[in-house]
Design a protein that fits this description.
Elements: H1 21-40, E1 50-56, E2 59-62, E3 78-80, E4 86-88, H2 97-106, E5 112-116, H3 119-127, H4 137-142, E6 148-149, H5 158-167, E7 172-175, E8 179-184, H6 187-210, H7 218-230
Parallel strand pairs: 6-7
Antiparallel strand pairs: 1-2, 1-5, 2-3, 3-4, 5-8, 7-8
The structure holds zinc ion.
Zinc ion binds at residues 48, 96, 115, 117, 154, 178-179.
Length: 262
């Protein structure tokens, strides 16, 4: 059972939403569920965050602006077309839908985007420190490194442009002085990736506070790449940076939009 539906209903076996009413229904249920989870886990405050799902080439379901994502009902979810024009729904779609559309244009494999401000990962984004250290095996196998994109004004065209370089290369992106953008083949995959990033950020912060971070050697990282192949895990993987650290040398001013961040 998944969200009250028998297995196999409302979802193709590969987990990608298809152009059927049942799948649009499932995508909407997943958006409400991910919204509850990001609020309960404190990944957002007040009305922050936004979640979308591409259910067909020209239909993207997206959360509204001005609503706590922990308390949404299906009627609040708007539908926009590929250009971002709202085609269904009474509630005004989030201004950050532009960022989601930029992802869908560049990544045919992505069918869902979750954006939130999880405090520890966002703390790294504010400190100007990416999460691309070669540290935790599970993170390296599933996500690789997590790059830090330059700052762009929320809700503006500047924001997706600032992240453009990373959208094709990574499934999760830290956004300088803002938050985290997570992508997946469906909403729950994007949500779980967000959870993994915040968990990693907490562990790394604990190690930094304890005064030492042991970085895995390139040989160890290569072993994990082999493991990924053996598990048949394909798709986008952003390489971790064997030289990345979290000491004082890694800190500096938050990278500005238009300037190289690494
Ligand atoms: Zn935001």
């Amino acid at each position: 059972m998944r969200n009250g539906l028998p297995e196999g209903e409302g979802e193709e076996s590969d987990g990608v939403y298809r152009e059927t009413n049942m799948n649009a229904f499932q995508a909407k249920q997943d958006i409400l569920e991910a919204g509850r989870r990001i609020w309960i886990r404190g990944f957002v405050a007040a009305n922050d965050g936004n979640i979308s799902a591409r259910v067909s080439d020209d239909e993207i379901l997206c959360t509204p602006t001005g609503v706590s994502k922990g308390f949404m009902d299906p009627a609040m979810i708007a539908t926009v077309d590929g250009e971002g024009r709202q085609i269904r729904g009474e509630w005004k779609v989030s201004s950050e839908a532009k960022m989601h559309l930029a992802v869908y244009r560049k990544r045919p494999d992505v069918h869902a985007v979750v954006h939130a401000h999880p405090p520890t990962a966002t703390g790294f984004a504010v400190a100007g420190i990416s999460l691309d250290q070669c540290v935790l095996p599970e993170v390296l196998v599933t996500l690789g490194g997590i790059p830090l994109a330059p700052y762009g004004l929320p809700g503006s065209e500047e924001l997706p442009t600032a992240m453009e370089t990373y959208i094709e290369k990574a499934n999760v992106i830290l956004m300088a002085n803002h938050g985290v953008l997570s992508m997946g083949k469906n909403v729950m995959e994007a949500y779980y990736r967000l959870e993994t990033v915040e968990h990693f950020a907490k562990i790394l912060l604990a190690a930094v506070q304890l005064g030492n971070v042991n970085i895995l050697s390139p040989e160890r990282v290569n072993e994990l790449k082999d493991l990924r192949e053996r598990f048949n895990l394909t798709g986008v993987l952003y390489a971790c940076n064997p030289k990345a650290n979290v000491g004082p040398a890694a800190t500096g001013p938050a990278p500005e939009f238009g300037k190289e961040s690494r």
